[in-house]
Amino acid sequence: MDIFFKLNIIVFSFLEKSQFVNLVFMPAGVRLVSVLLFNALGVIGLFVGALITSPIVGTNLTEALIISLISALNPYFSVLITKRLLHVDNLLKKLHAKELILIALFSALFNYLSHHFYFGLSNLHMSWESFENMFIGDLLGITLILFIFSLSLKLMRKSKLTSA
User: Fold this and answer.
1) How many beta carbons lie within 10 A of that of residue 22, not counting itself?
2) Ramachandran class of 143: left when φ > 0, alpha when ψ lies in -120 to 50, beta otherwise
3) pLDDT tens-digit profile of 60-86?
4) How far is the C-alpha of 106 from the C-alpha of 35, rounded, in Å?
């Protein structure tokens, strides 16, 4: 995951709005793919990974725990809700453009709302513009990574069919 933070900084640094907000945030997409592939194990890995990297952004232990939990649970809830509403199986066979778009929207929305809620409760003031930018950045980053993921799935399925 750390590689995607670094890659995001290298490729999209000109779109950075603050230390925590970028108009394209690829790690949000990586989180979502991790949960799509590994379910609850993905959530655990995301939580641990977020905790390990939290000292880099200068948060205290309580903030680190809460933000790590938010970062790990948001993609899980968006995947869970979308899979149930749209009847996507665990093998992701019914995962098409409509489902990917809804998963991306839910994930960006959950992330935006939960961070806004937490920052409001803890009196950490961020502007509405920052939250709008967070939503846009998550949505664009998720869309980019899901496009790559979807393309990879199609290529793997196609190569499996041609080799059989």
Assistant:
1) 26
2) alpha
3) 888 889 889 998 999 999 888 888 888
4) 14
